[in-house]
Amino acid sequence: LAKTTQPISMDSYEGQEVNITCSHNNIATNDYITWYQQFPSQGPRFIIQGYKTKVTNEVASLFIPADRKSSTLSLPRVSLSDTAVYYCLVGDLGDYGQNFVFGPGTRLSVLP
Amino acid sequence: NAGVMQNPRHLVRRRGQEARLRCSPMKGHSHVYWYRQLPEEGLKFMVYLQKENIIDESGMPKERFSAEFPKEGPSILRIQQVVRGDSAAYFCASSPPPGGVGYTFGSGTRLTVV
Question: Which of B1, B42, B56 lies at the smallest CB-CB distance from A43?
Fold first, then answer.
């Protein structure tokens, strides 16, 4: 299972764009990159998933360079409610039973 | 986290008692994962189960912990003779068939051992 490295914490202000970068130098050919968001006292919530280039949904964008050794989660115009821990995970979606390894994540604090 | 149902939401047990945590996966999902999260820490994988089958229990403590996912009914994580160090949030996730998008987590059971 590919190991990931993220910043432990980040601060931002309301309305700003936030970019959280995750390193996964030993990502395998079949691995996808998935980001989760977790609020206090709640289970992680799926945000976005991608394999290469760029993926965008109504919540975020995910940028993946050609070498796929890193990825960047982009949150446009954050609000106070985006304060949470964000986890980056890599794994093979075709591998049934993948027990994803969660790192400590990135604790994002959005300030007024 | 609609779809994956965990109960109870909060559970208080005295040292030495048994704790039983339940998880019903999303409709159509037949694979369940249990994770434990200590305060201010990330999620730690415990066990992965299919119906009537334990696939990977490499994250389960060797003693006092067990899990099952019967043919009918929810998956159960059982902790016998609980100790204060078992106090944590326990999350269950279910996964779609291969190629599906992401795991879905439940809201968790917060176990407090007093």
Answer: B1
Contact B68, B55 (CB under 8 A): no
Q: Which of A34, A43, A96 sits opposite B91 (nearest CB)?
A: A43
Q: In 3-state terms, what secondary structure has residue A82?
A: helix
Exposure class string for A62-89: b at 16+ Cβ within 10 A, else e: bbbeeebebbbbbbeebeeebbbbbbbb
Contact residues for A22 (Cβ-Cβ < 8 A; gap 6+): A4, A5, A6, A33, A35, A70, A71, A72, A73, A88
**pLDDT digit string, tens, across residues B62-101:** 999 999 999 899 999 999 999 999 999 999 999 876 666 6
